Amino acid sequence: MSGVADGGGATDVSGAAGFASLRITRVVRETADAVSLVLDVPEHCSSEFRYQAGQFLTVRVTLDGRELRRCYSMSSAPVQDELQITVKRDPGGAVSNWINDTAAEGVELHAAPPEGRFVLREASDAADVLVAFAGGSGITPIISLVRTVLATSSRPIRLFYANRARESAIFARVLDGLADAHPDRLVIVHHFDEDGGVVTPSAIEHFIDPVDPVDSADYYICGPAPFMETVEKAVLKSGAPGTRVHLERFSVAQVPLGVTEDSAEPTEEVVIELDRNRTNAAYRAGNTLLQTARMAGLRAPSSCETGSCGTCMARVVEGSARMLNNDALEDDEVEEGWVLTCQSLPASRKVHIIYE
After folding, report:
1. Ranges for the 2Fe-2S ferredoxin-type domain (predicted)?
2. What are the backbone dihedrals phi and psi of residue 200, each rounded to the nearest 5 degrees, phi first?
3. How far apart (Å, rounded) are the C-alpha atoms in residues 243 and 73?
4. Which domains does the chain have, with CATH numbers?
5. 14, 44, 87, 88 - which has most CB atoms within 10 Å?
6. Are 67 and 60 contacting, i.e. CB atoms less than 8 angstroms apart?
C-alpha cells in the first residue's frame, strides 16, 4: 500500500519495477480477523492483471523502513469482472495485520501481476467432480475455483471446509448462497474444531467416499500445513492419482535441521548469472540459493517464496541443488535442471545457476 500516513509507518513504493498501483474501491469485513479488498486496475495495465481462478497477487509495501512482499490469493472469479483479494490477520504478520487495521477505500496497493499454478485443469468430462479442501484462510483461492466452475461448466463440486470455530469461517454466507443456488451441483461439508477436534484422516476418507470414480476427480487442497498433510495423505490413499492432486501452500517451508549435513562436500561457492552478469557468491550453510543471491546484493526475481509460483526459477548448469518444496515445476523441467531458488539448497562444492 502507499500514500497512507499511519502508525504502521507505510511509505510509497510506486515506481517499483513490475508493480502497478491498484486503488482499493471497496473494503469488506468478512470476519473479525479477515478483510476483502476490491481493487481497481488501471486501464493501461488491465491486460497484465487478467487472472485465472486460484492465482494470487504479490503485494509490495514498506513498513517502518523495511520493504516487504506478501502473496494474497484472489477470492473473486474472472467471470465477476473484478479483482478481489482476501487477507486474514496472522499473529506476528506485519503486512496482513497492517492491511486489516488500515485498509480503506481510495488507498493504493502496489501489486505485481497475477501468478500461480493452483488453477483449474481442463476437465475431460463434464461429470468430472471438483473435490476441494480448505482450511481457514485456505478458502480464498478455493472459492475462486468454485465460483468459476459453477459459472462456466456443469461439473459437480464437493467442498470440505474446516475452521476452528463458526465465527472464523470466511465467506460462510456466500457459500451458503452458492449452495442454495446450485443444490444439485454443490455439496459443502463444514468442520469446526470446537465441535470435534482437528480434522482426522477418517473424516477426509468419509468425505471422499461418495466420489465415483475416485481417479477421475480433481482435488484441490489449501490451508495450514498439518491440515494439508492430513488431507493429501487421505486423498492419495483413496486411490486418487497424484497428477490430479493440487496443493497451494501459504507458509514458507522451513529448512529441516541437519539438511545440509548429508553432502560429503560442503558448498564453498555459488555462481549466479542474472541479467547477463556473473557473480561469484560466498555461501553460508543453510541458506537457499535465493537467500545467497540477495546476500550478494542481487535483485533476483521472487514472489511467493513457498515454492508455488515459479517466479524464482533458475537453471542449474553446474553442480546440484536440493529442493525442499516444489509445487510449481513439472517433472521434465526438473530433469532439465530447473529449480525454485527460494526452496533450493546447494548440494555440491560448487553450484552454478542461471536466471533466464
Report:
1. 268-356
2. -110, 160
3. 22
4. 10-115 (2.40.30.10), 130-248 (3.40.50.80), 259-354 (3.10.20.30)
5. 87
6. yes
